[in-house]
Amino acid sequence: MVSKSNKLLIGSFVSMNKADKYLLGSLKEALACDENCLMFYNGSPQTINRPNINEININEFQTKCNENNIKLVNIIVHSPYIINLATNEIAKKEFTFNILLNEVERTHKIGSKYIVVHPGNATNGMERSIAIKNVADMINKINKINKNVCLCLETMSGKGNEIGVTFSELKQIILLVDNKELIGICLDTCHTWDYGYDWNDSELIFKEFDKVIGLKYLKVVHLNDSKNELNAHKDRHENIGYGKIGFKNLLDICYSPYTKNIPKILETPIIDSIIHTYKKEVEMIRNKKFIDWKNN
C-alpha cells in the first residue's frame, strides 16, 4: 500500500460541525475519500458564530492526522464570505479586521499554516487601485499581530466588482504587503477560467503565473470544473470532467510539476453527500480515468 504522504496531494472541502465532533468529523470525511489534504470553514461562512476553540478536538485531530500521514501544513482553512478586505467604510473595516484576526488565530491554534481569503470588492464606485491598497493595508494590519499564518488570496472570476481577478492585481497586492512570508495565492481553476485564463494550455498559464507573481507564492489550488464558457465572469463550479474546462485539463493541472507539492482542494457541487461525491472524484483523479458516475 502506498503511503498517503507519498501520493498526489488531493483533498476536498469537508464539513466541520458539532454533530460529527468538529475536526474529527472533518478528518473522517477526508479519509473516507482517500484524501491526504483537506479544507474547512471554522464555522458558517455567512455568520460570525464559531464553536469554542477548546471544544473542537484539536489535540486528537492533530494526533489522528499524524497517524494517517496527513501533514498539518496540508490542512487548509477558508475564511468566511462576510468580510471585505477592500472596503473603504470605517465600520466595515473594523468588522473585517476583527473577524479575520479571529479566523487567523483559530487557524494557528488548529495547527494549520494557510487560510484562504477572498480579496473583496471595490464597492460604491471605488477605484480599483484604492481597493488594492485597502486589501494590502488590511493584511498588513492583521500581520502586525499574526506571525504564523499565511493569508492566501484567492483568484476571483470577475463577477461584479471583485478584486484579485488577474495575476497582475494579485501581484500589486503582494508588492504592498510588508511580510512576504505571510502572503500567498490560492489559485481557483474555475475562477481563473471564468475570468479568461484558458486551461487548455496549463503550461502557459503556470509560466505566466510565475512571471507575474512567482510560483513561490502559490500555496493552494482549488480544483473545480466550470459550468461556463471561457471568460464568462460568472463563477459556477461543476463536477470534475462534467464542465467546460474538462477532465484532461484538470488532470494536467493536478499532475503538473508546478503543483507537485501544492494541496489540490475539490469544491465541486455535492451530489447526495460529501463522501459520495469526492470519493468518486478523487478516485478518478488518482486513476487518471474519467467515469460517468453521475449517470450510472
Summarize the structure.
36% of the residues lie in helices and 14% in strands.
- Please state the structural category: alpha/beta
Widest β-sheet, arrangement of strands: 1-2-3-4-5-6-7-10
Write the element-wise H/E pattern from the N-terminal end onward. EHEHEHEHEHEHHEEEHEH
Record field, number of beta strands: 10
Describe the structure.
It is a single chain. Strand 1, helix 1 (23-32) and strand 2 form a beta-alpha-beta unit. The model has no long low-confidence stretch (mean pLDDT 96). Helices cover 36% and strands 14% of the residues. It has 296 residues and is α/β, with parallel strands linked by helices. The protein contains nine helices and ten strands. An eight-stranded parallel barrel has the order 1-2-3-4-5-6-7-10, surrounded by four helices. Helix 4 crosses helix 5.
Describe the structure using short key phrases.
alpha/beta; 296 residues; eight-stranded parallel β-barrel; two-stranded antiparallel sheet; 14% strand
What does the secondary structure layout of this molecule look like, with pairings?
Elements: E1 10-13, H1 23-32, E2 37-41, H2 58-67, E3 75-78, H3 90-110, E4 114-117, H4 128-143, E5 150-154, H5 167-176, E6 183-188, H6 189-195, H7 202-212, E7 218-223, E8 225-226, E9 237-238, H8 247-254, E10 264-266, H9 274-287
Parallel strand pairs: 1-2, 1-10, 2-3, 3-4, 4-5, 5-6, 6-7, 7-10
Antiparallel strand pairs: 8-9
Helix pairs in contact: 4-5
